[in-house]
Amino acid sequence: MFTGIVQATCEVVAINKKDGLNTLEIAMKPDLREGLITGASVANNGVCLTVTRIADDRVFFDVMEETLSVTNLSNLQLGSKVNIERSLTFGSEIGGHILSGHIHTQARVLEVSHTQAHFDIKLEVDPKWMNYILYKGFVGVNGCSLTVGEVTETSFMLHLIPETLKLTNLDMIKAGETLNVEIDSQTQAIVDTVERVLAKRANI
Fold first, then answer.
1. Rounded-to-integer distance, Cα 73 and Cα 58, Å
2. Which of 7, 12, 139, 198 would bridge 80 by S-S if both were Cys, CB 3.0 to 4.6 A apart?
3. SS3 sequence, the chain?
4. Which pTM does this prediction carry?
5. Which residues, 6 or more positions from 200, have their beta carbon under 8 angstroms from its beta carbon?
6. pLDDT more than 70, % of the chain
7. Lumazine-binding repeats: which residues (predicted)?
8. How far apart are CA 163 and CA 10, in angstroms?
9. How confident is the model at residue 115 (pLDDT cuts 50, 70, 90)?
10. Neighbours of 141 (CB within 10 A)
11. Residue 188 class from Cβ within 10 Å (0-12 exposed, 13-18 middle, 19+ buried)?
C-alpha cells in the first residue's frame, strides 16, 4: 500500500529488454535504499513493482508485458525520471490517500498551463473512468495523490502547488504524453454501489 506522497524522482540508468518483460535499473540515494530488501514493493510512477536486486546505488525491477501494456513505464528511456515511493509501513503518517499501486488507466495530457501564478494540467481519460473522478475528490496520477479540479465528461483538471512540482516529475510533462491513473478505491466502491442500488430500484 502507498499514500501517493512521492519521496523522490529517480533516474532510469538502464533498461534491459527481454521477451515478455523489461528490467529497470533505477538509481536511488542512500536514504531511499535504507532498509530496502529484495522482494519489497516500491511504486514507480504509481506502479507497484517488486525489488529483484540491489547493487550499489541501483535498484532493479522487472516489469511484465501486461504492466508495460497498461502503464507509461513502456515509454521510459535512459535518463527518464520516475516518481518513487516506498511502501507504507505500520505507524506511518498518511498525508495523501491510500493507493494500491495498481493502475486503472492512462490519461493523455491535453494542455499544460504554466505561469508565475499557477501550474495547471488538463487530462483526458476514457469516459467510463470519469464516473469515479469527481470535483474535489482524489486521484492518483503518476503515483501522486492529487485533488481533482474542474471535470467534464472526458477530462479533468489538476492544479499543482510548487511543492508537488519540486518533488515529482509532473513539472516535466508535455501535451500528448500519458500519465498513469489510479482511481480512489473508496470512491469507486461508493459509485458502483449507488449505481447497483439505483438499477435495482429502476427494475422493481
1. 18
2. 12
3. CECCCCCEEEEEEEEEEECCEEEEEEECCHHHHCCCCCCCEEEECCEEEEEEEEECCEEEEEEEHHHHHHCHHHHCCCCCEEEEEECCCCCCCCCCCCECCCCCEEEEEEEEEECCCCEEEEEECCHHHHHHCCCCCEEEECCEEEEEEEECCCEEEEECCHHHHHHCCHHHCCCCCEEEEEECHHHHHHHHHHHHHHHHHHHC
4. 0.91
5. none
6. 96
7. 1-97, 98-194
8. 17
9. confident
10. 25
11. middle
Cell 471535470 locates to 151
* Per-residue confidence (pLDDT) for residue 188, from 0 to 100: 85
CA proximity to 14, closest of 50, 72, 55? 55
Please, are residues 36 and 59 in contact by the beta-carbon 8 Å criterion? yes
The yes-or-no verdict on residue 49 having pLDDT over 80 is: yes
Q: What is the pLDDT of residues 58-73, one digit of tens each?
A: 999 999 999 999 999 9
155 — phi, psi (to 5°)?
A: -145, 165
Q: Which amino acid is at 78?
A: L
Place of cell 513505464: 73
